[in-house]
């Protein structure tokens, strides 16, 4: 099998590694942390910073195919090794998805709907643009944010006093807040032969802007599910996608689909696919970047996935020993911190509502 080099060794790298090894591929991880999640299960780890030019050259020399598990990869470092190793995802996908303004501009040009937005570089831009966008709005840094970090919700003029804290972090985007009936996501995979495979729609429930639960299939009409999947295919084609892409969407009160953001990699809301589908999002990513043919995805059973953050670890470990059908994934992260994603639980079920009630009754996620 091929040797896959992955920049980044977090849980996504770990689950990519498990999947790759199952398919007979070898994996080399680049991560500065010698005890990172993925390093523990890979064939080899290069311990160095993500943007270390020499380390990326070493990874390129040793691997047949280069990929990444997060979008803030150094583009120059990748371009520097593009003659040494296959980078089937290219660098354009990263260039677009690492910057919120570039991403939304691209989506709009592709004929897709996004929240109204404006570029903010200084406080006076915000004073001007907030009148166009209106309240409530959200101010976000263009690059590097996750789990709602680097964001400020603006409900009224008095919230503007906190805006400088965000603006000083770098270029920002001001987004109108979408009135949504549901947040959902779709994982889509594509290889360079142009074969596309789409996963079922996941309904996503966030707490404090961090994904809490994913429910699949999403509890919306089949028409809306089809519309969400068609949107995902359109995005994949517009991007000339290779690999897996996570598409976060809002289903508006108006039944229109607005794209929130793109993740050019496996996505937390797609973890359910490990147990609930014939192939997981990680399997599809690895197959796609190796240019293997892609299977049609089937949902084998409805499923709920719950995230286990630092504050849930102790109670979860106690709980799963009592739940015969709950599957716990421990990412093997050393340091337990509040709100840090430490693992997740997957529950296959014939009765979603009953399972959701059961999750509540454990009091683990209170
Ligand atoms: P992630 O961890 O998914 O990468 P992030 O830090 O990039 O998160 P976003 O996905 O942009 O953050 O926003 C986090 C959450 O805030 C969204 O899932 C959604 O609940 C809410 N949100 C963000 N932007 C909007 C918007 N324009 N309208 C309504 N809700 C929004
Ligand atoms: Mg994000
Ligand atoms: Mg998000």
TrEMBL record:
Gene: purK
Keyword set, alphabetical order: ATP-binding, Ligase, Lyase, Manganese, Nucleotide-binding, Purine biosynthesis
Subunit structure as annotated in this protein's UniProt entry: Homodimer.
Task of the protein: Catalyzes the ATP-dependent conversion of 5-aminoimidazole ribonucleotide (AIR) and HCO(3)(-) to N5-carboxyaminoimidazole ribonucleotide (N5-CAIR). Catalyzes the ATP-dependent conversion of 5-aminoimidazole ribonucleotide (AIR) and HCO(3)- to N5-carboxyaminoimidazole ribonucleotide (N5-CAIR).
Catalytic activity: 5-amino-1-(5-phospho-beta-D-ribosyl)imidazole + hydrogencarbonate + ATP = 5-carboxyamino-1-(5-phospho-D-ribosyl)imidazole + ADP + phosphate + 2 H(+)
Entry's family note: Belongs to the PurK/PurT family.
Pathway: Purine metabolism; IMP biosynthesis via de novo pathway; 5-amino-1-(5-phospho-D-ribosyl)imidazole-4-carboxylate from 5-amino-1-(5-phospho-D-ribosyl)imidazole (N5-CAIR route): step 1/2
GO terms, biological process: 'de novo' IMP biosynthetic process
PANTHER family: PHOSPHORIBOSYLAMINOIMIDAZOLE CARBOXYLASE, PURINE BIOSYNTHESIS PROTEIN 6/7, PUR6/7
Record-annotated membrane-spanning stretches: none
Primary enzyme class: ligase
The protein, known as: N5-carboxyaminoimidazole ribonucleotide synthase
Species whose genome carries this gene: Ligilactobacillus salivarius (strain UCC118)
Lineage: Bacteria, Bacillati, Bacillota, Bacilli, Lactobacillales
InterPro entries xrefs: ATP-grasp (IPR011761), ATP-grasp_carboxylate-amine (IPR003135), ATP_grasp_subdomain_1 (IPR013815), PreATP-grasp_dom_sf (IPR016185), PurK (IPR005875), PurK_C (IPR040686), PurT/PurK_preATP-grasp (IPR054350), Rudment_hybrid_motif (IPR011054)
GO CC annotation, single: cytosol
Superkingdom of the source species: Bacteria
A GO MF label: ATP binding
Family matches, as PROSITE patterns: ATP_GRASP
Binding site for ATP: 100, 140, 145-151, 175-178, 183, 206, 260-261
């Amino acid at each position: 099998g091929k040797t896959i080099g992955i920049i980044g060794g977090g849980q996504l790298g770990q689950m990519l590694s498990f999947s790759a090894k199952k398919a007979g591929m070898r994996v080399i991880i680049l991560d500065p942390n010698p005890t990172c999640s993925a390093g523990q299960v890979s064939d080899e780890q290069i311990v160095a910073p993500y943007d270390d030019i020499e380390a990326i050259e070493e990874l390129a020399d040793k691997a047949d195919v280069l990929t990444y598990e997060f979008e803030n990869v150094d583009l120059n470092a990748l371009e520097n090794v593009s003659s040494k190793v296959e980078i089937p995802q290219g660098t354009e996908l990263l260039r677009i998805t690492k910057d919120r303004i570039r991403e939304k501009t691209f989506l709009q040009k592709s004929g897709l709907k996004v929240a109204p937005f404006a570029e903010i570089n200084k406080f006076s831009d915000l004073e001007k643009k907030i009148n166009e966008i209106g309240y409530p709005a959200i101010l976000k840094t263009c690059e590097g944010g996750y789990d709602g970090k680097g964001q400020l919700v603006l409900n009224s003029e008095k919230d503007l006093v906190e805006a400088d804290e965000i603006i000083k972090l770098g270029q920002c985007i001001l987004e109108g807040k979408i009135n949504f009936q549901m947040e959902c996501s779709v994982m889509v995979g594509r290889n360079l032969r142009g074969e596309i495979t789409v996963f079922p729609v996941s309904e996503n429930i966030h707490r404090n802007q961090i994904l809490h639960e994913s429910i699949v299939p999403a509890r919306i009409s089949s028409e809306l599910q089809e519309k969400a999947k068609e949107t995902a295919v359109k995005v994949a084609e517009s991007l000339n996608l290779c690999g897996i892409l996570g598409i976060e969407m809002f289903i508006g009160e108006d039944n229109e689909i607005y794209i929130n953001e793109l993740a050019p990699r496996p996505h937390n809301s797609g973890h359910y696919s490990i147990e609930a589908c014939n192939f997981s999002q990680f399997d599809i990513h690895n197959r796609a970047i190796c240019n293997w043919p892609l299977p049609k995805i089937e949902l084998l059973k409805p499923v709920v996935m719950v995230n286990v953050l630092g504050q849930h670890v102790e109670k979860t470990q106690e709980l799963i020993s009592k739940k015969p059908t709950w599957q716990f994934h421990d990412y093997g992260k050393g340091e337990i911190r509040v709100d840090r994603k430490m693992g997740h639980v997957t529950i296959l079920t014939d009765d979603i509502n009953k399972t959701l009630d059961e999750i509540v009754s454990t009091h683990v996620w209170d």
